[in-house]
Amino acid sequence: MIVYWLCFILFLVGLYGVITRRNLVKIAISLSIMEFSTFLFFALVGYIDGGVAPIVDPADPVKVYVDPLPQALVLTAIVIGLATTSMLMAVIIRLYRKYGTFDIREIKNLRG
Amino acid sequence: MKGMTLIVKKTTQLIAGMVFMYGIYIIVHGHLTPGGGFAGGVVIAGSFILLILAFGSDFLNLVKEESGSTLYENLAILVVLFLAVSGLLFGTRVFFLNWFPKGTVGQLVSAGMLPLYNIFVGIEVAASILTIFLALIIFKEEISE
Amino acid sequence: MNPLIPLFVVIPLAGAFLIMILGRFIGELNKYFASLILLVLVILSIYSLATTGENLSLYKVGGWEPVNKIPIGIYMVMDGFTVIVLCIINVIGFLSAFYSISYIKRYTAENYFYALFCLMVAGMNGVVLSGDLFNIFVFLEISVISSYALVAFGVEKNELEASFKYQVLGGLASFLILYGIGFIYWKTKTLNIADIKEVFNAGYDKSYYLFVQILMLSGFGLKAAIIPFHAWLPDAHSSAPSPISAMLSGVLIKAVGIYVIIRLFFNMFAVSEGMSVLITTLGTLSMVIGVFLAIGQWDIKRLLAYHSISQMGYVVMSVGIGMILVSRGARPEIASLAIAGGIFHLINHAAFKGLLFLNAGAIEYTIGTRDLKEMGGLAKSMPATSATSFIASMSISGIPPFNGFFSKLIIIIAAIMAKFYLLALLAVIVSIVTLASFLKFQRYAFFNKTDNKNENHIKEVPFPMVFSMVVLSILCVLLSLLAFPEIREAVLTPAIDILMDPGKYSSQITGI
């Protein structure tokens, strides 16, 4: 059970970073931490005690396999995470070029 | 961006080919072992990125490369889509149908269309990661000038 | 199996990448290509609307048949509610793409614009059609990632900042949704919406179930910008290019937010009174707070964005009233009336809010500002824009001959019949405040005679933009026909039936 709590704490660490950090890149890193805690959670969901990697071996059909579906989901989610992170980094680079700073307190054109 | 020292360049030259081959291995064995299109594609893109980092973008004249990799990315994903749609034309006419002969379990040429999907997804992922990398570094240079 | 179903995703997806390749060779023709793709989709979706009716068609991707009546493959489902949202997506999508032909000229990289546009439409069609949770997530990410890029398309200070804010909050929403999916999979070992319902019917842990519901509501609520989660919407919607604002406000928040919330809370989770009261409260809050935030705005698009929050509040509130009545199990005819009002308002909002954003785009296109104080006297020089925006403004504030009136009337009648007098009163008040706000918009933009220093060189916008606006304003009038019982039976009743009957959706899919 403790692993699940650790995973949740990792999520909270990321959330803390998103809320408190002032640097755009650090916010992006915090988002990535949250993302990876989600992936870790999925991997834990699929874990079965004593299971092996789900590669079918015709010679030994009675093996216990871990649940392969969450792993497939995590792979898909990692691909999506790659797209999100690179999109975010591209916007951050553009923002840096416009404002000359990574500080979020100085980037506040939009209000209300 | 300038290149790195001679030691780095020489080592990279030796390693990059092997990294590339390893990526191809992962892609081709995607239906038999862990890995597949995405993992292998990332490794292949890694071999290119290694070279670019070691030699620097000045040496390679990277200005128009991005549009080339975008073209490969688009073509590869269209092929994947075409393979998926081909299920609508053959067999029981279902989208994403695996209508190729399946072969025997464990052989390299087996599992119907899965190796084909893996190969084209691999090309797509390699090209897109390279595109992202090139877009970010070329942009980075515009700032420093 | 209905062979049309995968085409809704395949055509725009293939179109997006074909545009990127063909754009190198055919140049100018490229922009008509996107409109052509979306026109095909409009025809397909209207055909589906005409043929679907009461039946629910199922598509098993890859031909994976269920094992022991447990679905194992990816299912795509098309039912009465789906086709309505599909029609909204593709019609507004086509008109926005056609409008972009002249609007987007002043941006560079038109190819990327149309490719991302098609990708966004593909994602939304996928969300609406998909029958399992994880596919909803994947398609949702496809559409929102392309919308992040489209919001930042102008690459100026405001656009980038809005896009950053949108991405951080959108990312947060995605993780909440992903956690929700993980928790559901943990207990049920399935991802199919219908199958999850069957498994939960067999028995569940109360607090676990509630936790999952809260996760899902907050995740999709962030995407739908219901009030405590609304912070990103005004920035993102006002900074995007105008056709994209019309898509985001008219379609995206509905397809990936409201649609999924309605679908999950009616067809996947068992309708419970506590949850439906919460949803109604959130809807009422967005309705009231959204309109009061809107009234002080002088930037047209920001004003319209806040009104989106408020109008979505009507939809959520009305559907929530329906949920409360369903959970009590009493008076199904009023519940169905409330849900009908909600869905009707969803359709109407797409028409008039899309039109209003296109009007705002036309004004910005000609005079180059979005500030209401700097406009005035445009009615004479831009007759088409002025007339269509008048229709849209009257429609959104609920003036009788237009569609907004009928849907608001149905919502208010349903609230009164369900004895929620306070909610009915609030709906009336919000409608009046909306009217005041749009009278301000009309007066300052079109009628208020200022010094008119630049009246001479203000011309009406080009044909594609006028065409889209006129078609949408005609839709604003025509959609009020849905208030008539016969037409309502044909279009809205199948959607309401599938939502009201707790077991119908899952039993038709799993065949149990």
Description:
The complex is a heterotrimer of chains A (112), B (145) and C (512). Chain A has 112 residues and is an all-alpha fold. Chain A is built from three helices and no strands. The longest helix of chain A has 32 residues, at 68-99. In chain B, 71% of the residues lie in helices and 0% in strands. The model of chain B has no long low-confidence stretch (mean pLDDT 79). Chain B has four helices and no strands. Chain B is mainly α and 145 residues long. Chain C is mainly alpha-helical and 512 residues long. Chain C has one domain. Chain C contains 20 helices and two strands. In chain C, strands 1-2 form a two-stranded antiparallel ribbon. Chain C is globular, with a radius of gyration of 22 Å. Chains in contact: A-B, A-C, B-C. Chain A binds chain C through residues 11, 15, 18, 24, 27, 31, 34-35, 38, 41-42, 45, 67, 69-70, 73, 76-77, 80, 83-84, 87-88, 91-92, 94-95, 98-99, 107-110, 112, and chain C through 134, 137-138, 141, 145, 148-149, 152, 155-158, 160-165, 167-168, 171-172, 174-175, 178-179, 181-182, 185-186, 189, 191, 234-235, 239, 293, 296-297, 302.
Feature tags:
heterotrimer, B: 145 residues, mainly alpha, 4 helices, 0% strand, elongated, C: 512 residues, two-stranded antiparallel ribbon, 2% strand
List the helices and strands and how they pair.
The complex is a heterotrimer of chains A (112), B (145) and C (512).
Chain A: H1 2-20, H2 24-45, H3 68-99
Helix pairs in contact in A: 1-2, 2-3
Chain B: H1 6-28, H2 37-60, H3 65-89, H4 114-144
Helix pairs in contact in B: 1-2, 2-4, 3-4
Chain C: H1 7-26, H2 30-52, E1 57-61, E2 74-78, H3 80-103, H4 110-129, H5 133-151, H6 157-188, H7 193-201, H8 206-224, H9 232-239, H10 242-268, H11 273-294, H12 300-328, H13 332-367, H14 378-381, H15 383-396, H16 403-417, H17 421-447, H18 463-478, H19 485-500, H20 504-510
Antiparallel strand pairs in C: 1-2
Helix pairs in contact in C: 1-2, 1-4, 2-3, 2-4, 3-4, 3-10, 3-13, 3-18, 3-19, 4-5, 4-10, 5-6, 5-10, 6-8, 6-9, 7-20, 8-10, 9-10, 9-12, 10-12, 10-13, 11-12, 11-17, 12-13, 12-17, 13-15, 13-16, 13-18, 13-19, 15-17, 15-18, 16-17
